[in-house]
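User: Run a structure prediction on this.
Assistant: Running it now.
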Amino acid sequence: MAKAEIRNRIRKLRFENNEMTQQELADRAACTRQTIVALEQGKYLPSLALAFRIAKVFGVLLEDVFEYEE
Protein backbone atom coordinates (compact mmCIF):
# COMPACT_ATOMS: atom_id res chain seq x y z
CA MET A 1 0.00 0.00 0.00
CA ALA A 2 1.40 3.37 -1.03
CA LYS A 3 1.88 6.04 1.59
CA ALA A 4 -0.83 8.70 1.54
CA GLU A 5 0.25 12.33 1.41
CA ILE A 6 -1.34 15.45 2.76
CA ARG A 7 -0.38 18.56 0.86
CA ASN A 8 -1.19 22.10 1.88
CA ARG A 9 -1.55 25.56 0.37
CA ILE A 10 -0.55 27.48 3.50
CA ARG A 11 2.27 29.46 1.91
CA LYS A 12 0.10 30.47 -1.05
CA LEU A 13 -2.79 31.43 1.24
CA ARG A 14 -0.50 33.55 3.42
CA PHE A 15 0.61 35.57 0.43
CA GLU A 16 -2.94 35.90 -0.86
CA ASN A 17 -3.86 37.35 2.54
CA ASN A 18 -1.78 40.53 2.54
CA GLU A 19 1.49 38.60 2.67
CA MET A 20 0.77 37.35 6.18
CA THR A 21 3.95 36.32 7.95
CA GLN A 22 4.50 32.87 9.39
CA GLN A 23 4.50 34.44 12.86
CA GLU A 24 1.16 36.20 12.26
CA LEU A 25 -0.42 32.93 11.14
CA ALA A 26 1.10 31.09 14.08
CA ASP A 27 -0.26 33.67 16.53
CA ARG A 28 -3.74 33.55 15.02
CA ALA A 29 -3.78 29.72 14.81
CA ALA A 30 -2.38 29.29 18.35
CA CYS A 31 0.79 27.43 17.41
CA THR A 32 4.47 28.26 16.94
CA ARG A 33 6.18 29.76 13.92
CA GLN A 34 8.31 26.62 13.76
CA THR A 35 5.12 24.58 13.33
CA ILE A 36 4.08 26.74 10.37
CA VAL A 37 7.56 26.37 8.83
CA ALA A 38 7.40 22.58 9.19
CA LEU A 39 3.88 22.46 7.74
CA GLU A 40 4.87 24.53 4.72
CA GLN A 41 7.88 22.28 4.12
CA GLY A 42 5.72 19.16 4.34
CA LYS A 43 7.69 17.88 7.33
CA TYR A 44 4.79 17.92 9.80
CA LEU A 45 1.14 16.91 9.71
CA PRO A 46 -1.16 19.07 11.83
CA SER A 47 -3.65 17.82 14.36
CA LEU A 48 -7.21 18.02 13.18
CA ALA A 49 -7.83 20.92 15.57
CA LEU A 50 -4.85 22.88 14.21
CA ALA A 51 -5.91 22.19 10.62
CA PHE A 52 -9.35 23.64 11.36
CA ARG A 53 -7.86 26.68 13.11
CA ILE A 54 -5.61 27.41 10.13
CA ALA A 55 -8.55 27.15 7.73
CA LYS A 56 -10.56 29.47 9.98
CA VAL A 57 -7.77 32.08 9.97
CA PHE A 58 -7.99 32.20 6.18
CA GLY A 59 -11.78 32.03 6.16
CA VAL A 60 -11.82 28.97 3.90
CA LEU A 61 -12.84 25.34 4.13
CA LEU A 62 -10.40 22.74 5.42
CA GLU A 63 -10.25 21.24 1.92
CA ASP A 64 -9.08 24.60 0.55
CA VAL A 65 -5.97 24.41 2.74
CA PHE A 66 -5.23 20.68 2.91
CA GLU A 67 -5.43 18.05 0.20
CA TYR A 68 -5.34 14.32 0.89
CA GLU A 69 -3.68 12.31 -1.86
CA GLU A 70 -3.51 8.51 -1.95
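Residues 48-58 form the longest helix (11 residues).
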